[in-house]
């Protein structure tokens, strides 16, 4: 299991904003949802496209390629053409710094 990867200071990722960090060769999308930080693999489960290119709408993100929507809190696929969830990763906040990691 890999070490925690620094994402940013909490003040650098405001509510509704997102960023991408890499843990090895895994891109991880980190989103601030009203002060709660969530991390998902930055790949649409339908077509292996970057979710970070999509639109955050409340607690969901829409893939710009074919319109699949995912729950940012759980990674659950919410509509076709995606049926498989996106991998969710742990997030921790220590001393006002956000961390995540690929825990597979």
Automatic annotation (TrEMBL):
It holds the Pfam family Rieske. Residues 5-100 form the Rieske domain. The keyword Repressor does not apply. SUPFAM superfamilies: ISP domain (SSF50022). Keywords: 2Fe-2S, Iron, Iron-sulfur, Metal-binding. One of its GO terms (molecular function) is 2 iron, 2 sulfur cluster binding. PROSITE patterns: RIESKE (PS51296). It comes from the Bacteria. InterPro entries: Rieske_2Fe-2S, Rieske_2Fe-2S_sf. This is Non-heme iron oxygenase ferredoxin subunit. The lineage of its organism: Bacteria, Pseudomonadati, Pseudomonadota, Gammaproteobacteria, Lysobacterales.
């Amino acid at each position: 299991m890999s070490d925690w990867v620094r994402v940013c200071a909490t003040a650098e990722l405001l509510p509704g904003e997102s960023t991408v960090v890499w843990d090895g060769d895994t891109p991880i999308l980190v989103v601030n949802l009203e002060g709660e930080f969530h991390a998902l693999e930055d790949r649409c489960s339908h077509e292996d496209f970057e979710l970070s290119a999509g639109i955050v709408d409340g607690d969901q993100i829409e893939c710009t390629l074919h319109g699949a929507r995912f729950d940012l809190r759980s990674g659950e696929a919410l509509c076709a053409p995606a049926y498989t969830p996106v991998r969710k990763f742990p997030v921790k906040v220590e001393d006002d710094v956000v961390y995540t990691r690929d825990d597979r």
